[in-house]
Specification:
Elements: E1 5-8, E2 18-19, E3 22-23, H1 29-33, H2 37-45, H3 49-53, H4 59-70, H5 76-86, H6 92-103, E4 107-112, H7 116-125, E5 135-137, H8 138-141, H9 148-158, E6 165-169, H10 172-180, E7 184-187, H11 193-200
Parallel strand pairs: 1-4, 1-6, 4-5, 6-7
Antiparallel strand pairs: 2-3
Helix pairs in contact: 2-4, 4-5
Length: 203
């Protein structure tokens, strides 16, 4: 791979929290909270969530509205803490590839669609701020993948031409958007660890 920096997606790549399009953290939601997972999905992630994802609306207010609607007594902060902890499923093999690429002199950053609260959780509580140069998130940039502005901001901030950057992402739409801008990219499908290693370190 001939590049100067890799932009690693988080959910679905560094964090293996998605299987067949399903968010694994919600599997025990109803048993743990006594509330409907479908209702939470609809009220929190339904129409208008794009504004949360890009940092224009606070996640707490969205979850608090759900908590009031279903009379969830522990409240929004308790639910968010539960969610973030259950959603933390690091893929150690992918992280090892990130560290190996850094050792080879390739810069590493994260580029993720996450709102500010979870971005900070990823950075500090999960410790990924130690592994990468910077975390670029939709909540901090005010724009989300696959919008070209997301990728252009990263390229400008790193001071690199598009063809010197690589995106590793589990979303085909995001990969296509990066390729259209002249980036290199790898679509990380499930269980694609061997293919990713071969892509990063061709023989």
């Amino acid at each position: 791979m001939d590049a100067e920096a890799v932009v690693w997606d988080f959910d679905g790549v560094l964090n293996r929290n998605i299987r067949n399009g399903r968010l694994l953290w919600q599997d025990d939601f109803e048993a743990d909270t006594g509330c409907s997972a479908e209702c939470f999905q609809r009220l929190v992630f339904g129409p208008g969530f794009d504004a949360v994802m890009t940092g224009k609306v606070d996640l707490r207010s969205r979850v608090a509205a759900w908590a009031r609607a279903v009379r969830y007594e522990p409240g929004a902060d308790a639910l968010i803490a539960y969610w973030f902890a259950r959603d933390a499923l690091p893929d150690d093999r992918v992280l090892a590839l990130l560290q190996r690429s850094k050792a080879a002199g390739i810069r590493a950053v994260i580029g993720t669609n996450n709102e500010p609260l979870r971005t900070s959780y990823i950075e500090r509580d999960m410790g990924y701020g130690r592994h990468v140069e910077r975390i670029y998130s939709s909540g901090r940039l005010g724009v989300a993948k696959p919008d070209p502005a997301f990728f252009e901001h990263i390229a400008d901030d790193l001071g690199l031409a598009a063809d010197r950057l690589v995106l590793i992402d589990d979303s085909a739409r995001n990969v296509a958007a990066a390729l259209a801008l002249g980036w290199q990219a790898f679509h990380f499908a499930e269980a694609a660890h061997d293919a990713l290693e071969a892509f990063l370190f061709p023989r």
